[in-house]
Structure to design on (151 residues):
């Protein structure tokens, strides 16, 4: 009896737009192919901005602020690629199965991307303000190269 009720609940909510049992009627206009294209395109654009743009802009800042070597910073950058490689095969398999709910898989991926972006931005909010040392007069700064040239 319980299994029949779960199947009927599943079939009622299967085609509706929403999250699990939260399927408000006011959002059902988004349950169209045009809106799916808009949502998937915006997720893809945001992923491109985060991975190809912001990530590489933040690397020099992260190196200076946390005194990381280039090797350590490259490990942070490559963590995305390694994670993608590890998750690619199971997700591809699950998405290719008959009866797989691909929009749901894409939605979970978008949530995971957003969570990863928030985790990546946490050091900027957790740590205190960055105070850099500013050299005002480069000619009087101690440098081993200046001493060798003048000697």
């Amino acid at each position: 009896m319980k299994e029949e009720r779960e199947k009927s609940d599943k079939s009622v909510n299967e085609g509706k737009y929403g999250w699990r049992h939260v399927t408000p009627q006011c959002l059902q206009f988004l349950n169209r192919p045009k809106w799916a294209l808009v949502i998937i395109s915006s997720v893809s654009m945001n992923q491109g901005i985060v991975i190809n743009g912001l990530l590489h802009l933040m690397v020099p800042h992260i190196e200076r602020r946390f005194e990381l070597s280039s090797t350590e910073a490259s490990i942070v950058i490559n963590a995305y690629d390694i994670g993608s490689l590890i998750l690619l095969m199971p997700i591809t398999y699950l998405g290719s199965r008959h009866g797989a709910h691909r929009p749901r898989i894409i939605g979970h991926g978008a949530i995971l991307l957003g969570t990863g972006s928030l985790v990546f931005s946490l050091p900027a909010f957790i740590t205190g303000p960055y105070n850099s040392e500013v050299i005002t007069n480069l000619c009087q700064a101690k440098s081993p190269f200046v001493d060798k040239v003048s000697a």
Remarks:
- The helical segments are 2-13, 33-65, 70-96, 102-126, 144-150.
- Residues 6 and 140 are 77 Å apart (CA to CA).
- The chain has a mean pLDDT of 77.
- The chain is about 70% helix and 0% strand.
